[in-house]
């Protein structure tokens, strides 16, 4: 909607003086400017978030070595055969967790 159409709508809906129309038009201009700035800043924020996520994706985390609970879970997640060291670590960790849970319950 351009300025002339907006002014016609304002007059049609009861603006009684030209001063009222001018005040409404100034408020509408301010609102439109604010909306445009907000849209630009939101887009910039989205681009910054994407850049941060892309940088984090580029940084590869170091994988835990075999023989740990994390490596055991990795084998399962990737549908790989679980090596003996990881299986032993998983059994040891599971037993320790169960013992701790029983000790807390008692």
Query: Can you summarize the main beta sheet?
Result: none
Give the quaternary arrangement of the chains.
single chain
Distinct helical segment count: 4
Give the N-to-C terminal Cα separation: 73 Å
Tell me the count of domains.
2
Helix fraction? over 70%
Low-confidence stretches: none
> What is the β-strand count?
0
Taken as a percent bin, the fraction of beta residues is under 5%
Annotation keywords:
2 domains, 106 residues, mainly alpha, 77% helix, elongated
General description of the model:
With 106 residues, this protein is mostly helical. It is built from 4 helices and no strands. The protein is elongated and about 85 Å long. The protein has 2 domains: 3-58, no CATH class; 69-105.
What's this model, at a glance?
This protein is mainly alpha-helical and 106 residues long. It is 77% helix and 0% strand.
List the helices and strands and how they pair.
Blueprint: H1 3-12, H2 18-58, H3 69-77, H4 84-105
Helix pairs in contact: 3-4
């Amino acid at each position: 909607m351009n300025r002339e159409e907006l002014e016609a709508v304002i007059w049609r809906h009861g603006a009684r003086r030209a001063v009222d129309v001018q005040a409404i038009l100034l408020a509408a201009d301010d609102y439109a400017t604010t909306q445009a700035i907000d849209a630009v800043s939101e887009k910039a924020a989205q681009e910054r978030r994407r850049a941060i996520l892309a940088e984090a994706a580029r940084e590869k985390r170091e994988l835990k070595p075999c023989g740990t609970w994390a490596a055991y879970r990795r084998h399962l997640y990737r549908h790989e055969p679980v090596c003996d060291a990881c299986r032993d670590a998983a059994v040891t960790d599971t037993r320790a967790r169960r013992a701790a849970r029983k000790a807390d319950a008692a």
